[in-house]
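Narrative summary of target 7.
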Amino acid sequence: MSFDAVFLSRVQFGLTIMFHYLFPPLTIGMGVVLVYLEGMFLWKREAIYATAVRFWTSLYAVTFSVGVATGIVMEFEFGTNWAVYSRFVGDVFGSALAAEGIFAFFLESGFLAVLVFGWDRVGPKFHFFSTVMVSLGSIFSAVWIIVANSWQQTPAGHRITAMLRDGKPWIVDGAPVMRAEVADYWTVVFNPSTLNRLSHTLIGAFVLGSFFVMSISSYYLLKGRHEEFARRSFTGGLILATIMSIAALISGDSNARMVAEYQPAKLAAFEGHFKTGPADLTLMGIPSTEEQRVRSAIVIPGGLSYALRGNFDAEVSGLDRFRPEHRPPVLLSFLSFHIMAALGVFFIVTTVYASWLRLRGTLFQKRWLLIVFVFAVLGAFAANELGWMAAEVGRQPWIVHPNVVHDPAGKLALDPEGFVQYRYEEGLLTRNGVSEAITGPQVLGSVIMFGFIYALLLWTWIYVLNDKIQKGPQPIQKAGQEA
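Modeled conformation, tokenized:
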């Protein structure tokens, strides 16, 4: 039996990061809710808020621990499975990941000890400060990871040079081994996609954290348990969820415009836009690459052209403008993007409606809506995973996406055959990034091994969370002492 090392390495990394990505967005979102609840405790001095913070902190700590354990594996995979890729991006990624460790991870993990164990050892004000630092640490961690990932989507601030060995260019198979080196650090940090992708990623995390809080709170309300705690917690989560669900729509539009300029093939795959010309905005359908159209489609004619250019008849580059070997997988890109967008609309509708009911004082009497919120957290998890999938699959076949070339008028430059030109020296194809030394059976063995370990970790996480949820929050009778 033949095992493809490239395919299996992609499967392994995809499964690894998708499992890991269950946890960081959740802790980022929960951190903001913790800040809100503990801030309310300091302001109103009501013990119910202290009860809420302690309960959610215990769930946060468990999730943070599993997230750290699952994240370490990915960094080893860079060396074992993706050595060529690591050599190419090492100088750029090294600076970003070092900053993440120094300025984010240590900040978050250091103050997490105070957050979890400092209730009776420090005053309320210092404990609140620790909560803020933990939340900021999780956000800063996302900042540097997004910087690194965004650079490989839209490279900037670097130069391509030959790697040296003993002061001489390293030659392999008659060609020099090239690498990207940092030329302008802040241009690397603020590459063209960083701010758009960072804002959308953080918003998605805030949505997930708030829906997680609302899910458990709804469960308690439906069961008639810990009702005052659940109402306060649900309200805090609902405020954040409503604001961020609407913000996701705005940031999503901004991201689409950025992708259209720097990764037009990805946008064409997202919308199933095969032929260059005015582009419809597809609301529903299934793309067919054989027929080069979207079947059973519900569309807004010219909607994508209008969204991008302000003109229903404006030309948008289709997949026909890109060489077949440079086109992303259409079906997976299309479905992941559209399901994510549909979930985003669902979040807006449910949170705005719930907020209106909360203002009227009738929210917690709507049992059917509370049932919806119990399960809506699954949609929030799915939206975050699908967003990552759309961004990464849409980047293929490039593991480092080269910049497209624009003419003096700002339009995409075409080669003599009519295809979009890339700065090929800046890019790296995924199939060329795999380690030379690994074999398919070796990767398959590690996929099976990590699959078993991760299944065990997932079961443990769910078991511990369920145990804590069933026991419920432990009431705090005394508000505590001043710092």
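The first helix runs from residue 5 to 20.
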